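Hey, quick one: can you model this chain's 3D structure?
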Amino acid sequence: MSTNLKILPDDVTEYRTKEYWEKRYSKEPSEISFDWFKSYKELKPLFDVHLPNKNVSILVLGCGNSALSEDMYDDGYHNITNIDFSETVIENMRLRCKDRTGMTWIEMDIRDLNFLDRTFDIVIDKGTMDALMCDEGDVWDPNPEVIEVVRKEVDEVTRILKVGGKFIYVTFGQPHFRRRYLERPCWKVEVETLGEAFHYFFYHMTLLN
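Sure thing. Here's the predicted structure for all 209 residues.
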């Protein structure tokens, strides 16, 4: 089942707030799934290339009630940690996936990750950064607050990712707008394009040091 469009916000800046998501998830049945952008089926060819080892430890940032982790688990990736700042959706997903042994669900803010350094092999963001940037303002001259919020997310990823591990970011954000937020001395930003009429982008960065 997919999200009822009636509960989408009137103002897209609400996507940045915990209050909006708590209210939304409290109204949605637990079996509802909402996936930003592409489904796992559509992403699988790229995952097969960039995540060939299914025994890796994976962190999904801002998991929401997306079916991504469930579909990955069913495809053999069993070491998945999912975080979201909504207590409601974490509890819903924990119950929904109770039979998927080894997959964990934790209430946590992606800007302040409560994990030790160098914990995960793979970190995935599918649309979460985009939600944080809904109040971006001028895309050529973003609001300082937005820049700081995204900086915190990416800095935390570089901290908890293992050397040789990958950060994967799926978005509709074009490289000339998004690359600036992702660039760090510790990795090279690479991007692949998905879709034909409307493009999505699959960014992947491997931690070098």
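One thing worth noting: Confidence is low (pLDDT under 50) at residues 1-5.
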